[in-house]
Design goal:
5-stranded mixed sheet, about 40% helix, alpha/beta, 5 strands, single chain, about 160 residues
């Protein structure tokens, strides 16, 4: 018997993001999920085809100051999450990850979920910018498309030579 959608999603996320071997990346666990949900309920989105998750979207609202520190390689992704204060007005959205099972790619599901999440967060916060640290050309293309459709400027993290 093959892997469940959930098991495939976990495996795919680890293959793409390698969070277990990169201490600077955010590793999502139950505690992280609870904190993200307290930041805003739309930080995490999922498409379930009836057999478990097929698409996961993670967006982290934060401040422009923290966004710029992250983009300048002064703080890590994990530090961005940890330093983001609770219960304030957020001005920037970090398009943290979009994980999509292969058979669901290029169907617009990740784009739709991401835009819905952004619009939901924008109802509660004065969002001025999106930013991304793309791990794939598909992820970068999604971020570019979402920025265009939401009318928000997109900033990209450049790799550092640390």
């Amino acid at each position: 018997m093959g892997l469940s959608n959930f098991e495939r999603m976990i495996k795919l996320a680890e293959e793409v993001f390698a969070t277990r071997t990169d201490a600077d990346q955010l590793s999502v666990d139950e505690e992280v999920i609870r904190r993200l949900q307290s930041i805003h309920p739309a930080t995490m989105s999922e498409y379930d085809d009836g057999n478990g998750p097929a698409v996961w979207i993670l967006i982290i609202p934060t401040t422009l100051v923290l966004m710029n520190r992250f983009l300048e390689n002064k703080i890590s992704e994990k530090e961005l999450y940890e330093l983001t204060p609770l219960n304030i007005c957020y001005e920037a959205l970090y398009l943290c990850s979009a994980t999509v099972l292969p058979e669901y790619r290029r169907k617009g599901i990740a784009k739709k979920l991401t835009i819905q999440a952004i619009e939901s967060i924008k109802k509660d916060h004065p969002i001025k910018s999106l930013f991304v640290w793309a791990f794939s050309k598909e992820g970068d293309a999604l971020a570019e498309k979402v920025a265009g459709l939401t009318g928000l400027p997109l900033k990209r993290k450049q790799e550092s030579n640390q």
